[in-house]
């Protein structure tokens, strides 16, 4: 694989080349600098015998999981908020329609009772 300094300017490296380069520089940093985030992720295979592809998938998922979770929660809230508001409005209309006759009956009964009491 090409070194970071010798990559041709007319050709961009692929994702696997970037990840491999990051792994090489992270594990072999003679100057004592902190390793990259990719190297800090423990290498676990997605499935037994999955090989390098499984390792890569596990590493990428481990790096992205916190951000994906937050993004998914935000998008779900944005998508569900209007639907939940419509459902709540519908429930309020239904309950109001059902409670109106009951409330009307209670008021009529209270007025009738008040009319029977001597003043």
Q: What layout of secondary structure does this protein have?
A:
Blueprint: H1 15-27, H2 37-40, H3 51-116
Q: Explain this structure to me?
A:
- The chain has 119 residues and is mostly helical.
- The protein has helices at residues 15-27, 37-40, 51-116.
- The longest helix has 66 residues, at 51-116.
- It is rod-shaped and about 100 Å long.
What's the quick description here?
The protein has helices at 15-27, 37-40, 51-116.
Low-confidence stretches: 1-5, 34-47
Number of helices: 3
Largest sheet: none
Order of helices and strands: HHH
Number of DSSP strand runs:
0
Structural class: mainly alpha
Strand content: under 5%
* Helical fraction: 55-70%
Average per-residue pLDDT, rounded, comes to: 74
Shape call: rod-shaped
Ends distance: 103 Å
Radius of gyration: 33 Å
Features:
single chain; 119 residues; mainly alpha; 70% helix; 0% strand
């Amino acid at each position: 694989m090409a070194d970071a300094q010798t990559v041709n300017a007319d050709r961009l490296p692929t994702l696997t080349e970037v990840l491999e380069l990051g792994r090489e520089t992270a594990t072999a940093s003679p100057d004592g600098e902190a390793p990259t985030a990719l190297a800090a992720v423990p290498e676990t295979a997605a499935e037994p015998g999955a090989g390098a592809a499984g390792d890569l998938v596990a590493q990428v998922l481990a790096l992205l999981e916190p951000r994906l979770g937050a993004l998914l929660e935000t998008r779900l809230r944005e998508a569900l908020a209007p639907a939940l508001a419509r459902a709540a409005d519908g429930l309020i209309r239904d309950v109001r329609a059902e409670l109106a006759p009951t409330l009307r009956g209670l008021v009529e009964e209270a007025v009738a009772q008040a009319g029977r009491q001597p003043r």
